UniProtKB/TrEMBL annotation:
GO MF annotation list: DNA-binding transcription factor activity; sequence-specific DNA binding
Name of the protein: ModE molybdate transport repressor domain-containing protein
Alphabetical list of InterPro entries matching this protein: LysR-type_TF_proteobact-type, LysR_HTH_N, LysR_subst-bd, WH-like_DNA-bd_sf, WH_DNA-bd_sf
Record-stated family: Belongs to the LysR transcriptional regulatory family.
Length: 333
């Protein structure tokens, strides 16, 4: 039997062809893959070149299969359906063999964002046994083999992005009412921007991380009252209790900003670092199917919070590709 790789340039062209033939439309196939219609046309043109025959008759009313196209579509549909059935069977076997999903996540993220959604998550994936491995401070790498972990990193093509790294100085509504917002280095008029405020600082970070909010001089702790913690979850809890101002990573505080338990504490807007909070697996091979589904669920709920925070003017609006495209193993563009 002749190997398929010797007959066509790329298997992705077959996927594109099958979608276009099934829909009878290049534009609808483009929506399936979240790519442009010209990209669909290029993939099909390459497949036609590999085969040596036209597969579609293009017209104003859409794309109609030629006789050769009908022959190939029947074979492609049968083959892809059999592959889909095999994948579904293997997925089911995998989850029966090992329903435990290990999540290595920030203690603050779990405590302040995920716990309130845990019941719904569990109901959505009743077969999953969730085991949480919590990290108190700043993580620089993921140790051990886990199914889902968070890591702040530079953007990586094809990565599963939970949220952009956006930092919002936050406090409780009561603290804001009693102390007002930090005016910031551009509006301080010679006064100490930190004066009269209490700051909740993560000991893993240098105090210069506050420079965009307070200015370089005040960020070294020259004014105000400073409390340091080794656990970021404790910092956010203290901020919600009215103990002071914290730097709030949007991936942790989005839900609290949305609900009003936390409010922006700075007259500026927010700090965008250009990095992202990524979800990844450290187990050998690709992320397990159930872990993928759970990661998709978490990303979708986070996106809802980020959009709601943007509607309140408390954070940036993030334009994402549709979630399914993050998992496109064929890299169709």
């Amino acid at each position: 039997m002749t190997e398929l790789s010797h007959l066509i340039s790329s298997p992705k062209s077959l996927l594109v062809f099958e979608a276009a033939a099934r829909h009878g439309s290049f534009s609808r196939a483009a929506k399936d893959f979240n790519i442009s219609q010209p990209s669909i046309s290029r993939n099909i043109a390459q497949l036609e070149q590999d085969i040596g025959q036209p597969l579609f008759v293009r017209g104003a009313g859409g794309a109609t299969l030629t006789e050769a196209g009908q022959f190939l579509f029947a074979a492609a549909s049968d083959g892809l359906n059999r592959i889909a059935d095999a994948v579904a069977t293997l997925r089911a076997q995998s989850e029966v063999q090992s329903p435990e999903i290990v999540l290595s996540l920030s203690n603050a993220f779990v405590t302040n964002w995920l716990v309130s959604r845990l019941a719904v998550l569990s109901d959505s994936f009743p077969e999953a046994v969730l085991r949480f491995d919590l990290v108190a401070g700043t993580r620089k790498k993921v140790a051990g083999e886990v199914d889902i972990a968070t890591l702040i990193t530079d953007p990586t093509p094809g990565a599963i992005v939970l949220a952009p790294e956006v930092i919002v100085p936050v406090c409780s509504p009561d603290y804001l009412s009693a102390h007002g917002r930090v005016t910031g280095p551009d509006a301080m008029s010679g006064e100490n921007a930190a004066a009269g405020h209490r700051f909740l600082h993560l000991s893993d970070h240098e105090k210069t991380i506050w420079a965009p909010v307070l200015g370089k001089a005040d960020a070294i702790g020259a004014g105000g009252i400073w409390h340091e913690f080794s656990d970021y979850a404790a910092i956010i809890q203290a901020a919600m209790d009215g103990s002071g101002i914290a730097l709030g990573w949007l991936s942790v505080v989005a839900g609290s900003l949305r609900s009003g338990r936390l409010v922006p504490a700075w007259q500026g807007r927010w700090i965008e670092t250009g990095r992202v909070v990524q979800l990844l697996s450290t187990r050998p091979g690709p992320m397990r199917p159930m872990a993928q589904d759970i990661a998709r669920w978490i990303c979708a709920r986070m996106n809802e919070d980020i959009e709601a925070v943007a509607d309140l003017g408390a954070g940036p609006r993030v334009h994402r590709r549709p979630q399914h495209n993050m998992w496109d193993g064929f890299g169709i563009r």
